[in-house]
Amino acid sequence: MFTVFVLGNIASGKSTACRYLESHGAMLIDLDELAKSLYVPGSDIVNALAEEFGWDILDEEGGVRRNILASRAFVSPDAVARLNSIVHPVLIEQLSLRILDPVCCTVSSPRYPFAVVEVSAPTGFEDAFGLADEILVISAPLAVRRERAIQRGMEPSDFDARSACQPDESALCNLATTVIDNTAGDNSLFEQLDSWLACHGFIGTANKEDADA
């Protein structure tokens, strides 16, 4: 299955782009949500997170208090790196299971024409880029993204702390096969995505079950 990783810093429009591609038939995998699904009480990954960031990140049932974990893991690049070292190996394994075609004795058509993987934190995740056929970056300047986030209700200090843990725009764009400029934050984002879809032959495709299903 053709797989595109979509990258973008906070308030870049990355999630909007991913949902738009999903509406055109893509299987969407949100890495943040996939990572959260791994936080099973009592699992090795949860225990490792508690040992690293404090056992009080766990609730009474042994689940992860994500807001507390986030408040400790996203305060510095070093803390993010420690989080990634615990989560990424398992995350990459689970992602591979979802996007790689299974080896089978019979030939079957894929359910989806392509897969979109939303990557919110690319730093340290470069080892997984080999799973992608293309890296698509949604880009907008820092000042523009900061204003967007504040208008949406985010505290300026929260934005600044999270942004400090992300790569700058030029470094992010250097990772890309294709860059889409979303400075304007208008319908030009969708027009550029339509061009990308048309270039890859995905315009007009539909997400559907196999005929024999």
CATH-derived architecture: 3-Layer(aba) Sandwich
User: Count of helical segments?
Assistant: 9
| Shape by Cα distribution | globular
Which percent bin holds the helix content? 40-55%
Instruction: Write down the Rg.
Output: 18 Å
Distance between the termini: 18 Å
Instruction: Briefly note the CATH topology name.
Output: Rossmann fold
CATH class, named Alpha Beta
Low-pLDDT stretches are 103-109, 205-213
How many beta-strand segments?
A: 5
Structural class: alpha/beta
Mean pLDDT over the residues: 89
CATH superfamily: P-loop containing nucleotide triphosphate hydrolases
Strand content: 5-15%
Describe this structure in words.
The chain has one domain: 3-Layer(aba) Sandwich (Rossmann fold), CATH 3.40.50.300. It is 45% helix and 12% strand. α3 runs antiparallel to α5 (77-99) and α6 crosses α7 (156-164). The longest helix is centred in the middle third of the chain and has 23 residues, at 77-99. It is globular. Residues 103-109 and 205-213 have low confidence and may be disordered. The protein has 9 helices and 5 strands. A 5-stranded parallel β-sheet has the order 2-3-1-4-5. With 213 residues, it is α/β, with parallel strands linked by helices.
Task: Describe the structure in brief.
This protein is of the alpha/beta class and 213 residues long. The protein has helices at residues 14-23, 31-37, 44-53, 66-73, 77-99, 142-151, 156-164, 169-174, 188-199; strands spanning 2-7, 27-30, 114-119, 134-139, 178-181. The chain has one domain (2-199): P-loop containing nucleotide triphosphate hydrolases (Rossmann fold).
